[in-house]
Amino acid sequence: MSDDQSLSAIWYIGALILVLSALFARRPGIGAILRSLIGWAIIAGAVYMVVEQRDTLARLAERFGIGGQSVEGGTTRIEMGPDGHFWARVELNGVSRRMLIDSGATTTALSQATADAASIETSGGGFPVMLSTANGQILAKRATIRSITLGNLHADNLDAVVSDRFGDLDVIGMNFLSRLGSWRVEGRTLILEPADTSEHEAARPSVLDQS
């Protein structure tokens, strides 16, 4: 038995002792004890399955378009999804969202639902923006994202456009990527590096090949 298995066994035995102690301290009937034991067994089994199958669950997540995302050596790395695109886990004003990274989009674009959830207000005045999309031209409202975080990357006061015509799609555009120190694709991994604020260098983005 490995050390991990030994620790797991000790944990389960300790949890069982605590549950039994609590039950007998209240002196319930046999039926209540059996129901409680069955309930705890189901919970323990579910936790065990999640822990043991975490790799399988991660693969399933990638299958449904959610690529792996991690921070390594000061860079944020995103695995290409099965659809050939890069999807990032992003926080907008503290609200978590799944966003498509698109170097072909000039400006970051948000659905109306995401803007509402993250308390991002559109500008009441000024003219709307005309955007060309795969479904034709649409009108969008201007907005500003107070705070956006992707892995170890962060930006404040990022311009964005908002429209209910985007459906449930949220896109990170070039105006965010251009704030980075650099970004590139190696194989099926998108590597994003933060800007070197000490040198105030302009970002030098490369071409994102998502074919």
What does this structure look like?
- Keywords: Hydrolase, Membrane, Protease, Transmembrane, Transmembrane helix.
- Pfam families: gag-asp_proteas.
- InterPro entries: Clan_AA_Asp_peptidase_C, Peptidase_aspartic_dom_sf, Retropepsin-like_bacterial.
- One of its GO terms (molecular function) is peptidase activity.
- This protein has about 210 residues and is of the alpha+beta class.
- The chain has 2 domains: about 5-50; about 65-195, Beta Barrel (Cathepsin D, subunit A, domain 1), CATH 2.40.70.10.
- The protein has 5 helices and 11 strands, in the order αααβββββαββββαββ.
- The protein has helices at about 5-25, 30-50, 55-65, 110-115, 175, and strands at about 70, 75-80, 85-90, 95-100, 110, 130-135, 135-150, 155-165, 170, 180-185, 190-195.
- The strands form 2 sheets. Strands 3, 4, 5, 6, 7, 8 and 9 form a 7-stranded mixed beta sheet that branches.
- Helix 1 (about 5-25) runs antiparallel to helix 2 (about 30-50).
- The longest helix has 24 residues, at about 5-25.
Brief summary of the model shown:
Keywords: Hydrolase, Membrane, Protease, Transmembrane, Transmembrane helix. The protein is α+β, with helices and mostly antiparallel strands and 211 residues long. The chain has five helices and eleven strands; from the N terminus they run H-H-H-E-E-E-E-E-H-E-E-E-E-H-E-E.
Approximately how much beta-strand content do the residues carry?
25-35%
N→C terminal distance: 47 Å
Tell me which oligomeric state these chains represent. Answer: single chain
As a whole number of angstroms, the C-alpha radius of gyration is: 24 Å
Number of strands: 11
CATH level 3 topology of the largest domain:
Cathepsin D, subunit A, domain 1
Low-confidence stretches: 61-65, 198-211
Number of domains: 2
Q: How much helix, percentage-wise, in residues?
A: 25-40%
The assigned structural class equals alpha+beta
State the CATH superfamily name of the largest domain. Acid Proteases
- Number of separate helices: 5
CATH class of the largest domain: Mainly Beta
- Main β-sheet: number of strands, strand sense, barrel status? 7 strands, mixed
- Per CATH, the architecture of the largest domain is Beta Barrel
Mean pLDDT: 78
Globally, the shape reads: elongated
Spell the H/E element sequence. Answer: HHHEEEEEHEEEEHEE
